[in-house]
Design a protein that fits this description.
The protein has 200 residues and is of the alpha/beta class. It is 40% helix and 14% strand. The longest helix has 16 residues, at 171-186. Its EC number is 2.5.1.129.
């Protein structure tokens, strides 16, 4: 298997668990991950996942304790010296999951106020895969315009919309379905859910 390099960013929308599950699967397969969390994303870690984020580095180390620590690196939001801030550093794809409407707005309009937004801008300008995973409902016109603008400029929009044809039995089944669809869009193989026509 060819080892690839990906960026996973978690922003302040509901569903941080999707970004974590994607990262776990990429690490399990031996890939390298640049990992980022926005300020609002840390709040979601506390409120939805009940994680202690007092020491953020320790929090992430515990999340990925079962994987090789040399496979991933966490970057600070204002670290514009990070490799992913430059197009000269090759990555095989970036996933913003979940992608808040605020982060979407910045990406869609080319505004790079932090490393998540800059890394996404690099993906677009270098014509490399950028997957945005919105988790917001309902959507108003500005949201839709920004989604359309991002898509027209090269982003792939993969909404966090779990399917039910695989007959999910647990919350993990629903999480794995969304994570699997995201990995499908990156061309990364997995066995996170039962595909249409397959038997459980």
């Amino acid at each position: 298997m060819t080892v690839k390099t990906f960026t996973v960013a978690i922003t302040g929308a509901s569903g941080a668990v999707y970004g974590i599950r994607i990262t776990e699967e990429l690490l399990r397969q031996g890939h390298y991950v640049h990992f980022l969390v926005s300020e609002a994303g840390w709040q979601v870690f506390r409120e939805e996942l009940l994680l202690d984020t007092t020491d953020r580095e320790e929090c992430v180390r515990k999340l990925f304790a079962g994987y090789n620590s040399e496979q991933w690196v966490m970057h600070e939001l204002q670290d514009f010296k990070a490799p992913i801030a430059s197009g000269s550093h090759h990555t095989d794809g970036m996933i913003v999951s979940p992608c808040s409407m605020g982060t979407l707005s910045k990406i869609a309009n080319g505004i790079s106020g932090n490393l998540i937004e800059r890394a996404a801008d690099v993906q677009l300008k270098e014509k490399r895969p950028l997957l945005l995973v919105p988790r917001e409902t309902p959507l108003h016109g500005i949201h839709l315009e920004n989604l359309s603008k991002a898509e027209k400029n090269g982003a792939l929009i993969v909404p966090a919309m779990p399917g039910f044809y695989h007959l999910p039995e647990t919350k993990d089944d629903l999480i794995n379905f969304v994570a699997g669809k995201i990995l499908d869009s990156l061309g990364v193989g997995h066995a996170l859910f039962t595909r249409w026509g397959q038997k459980k």
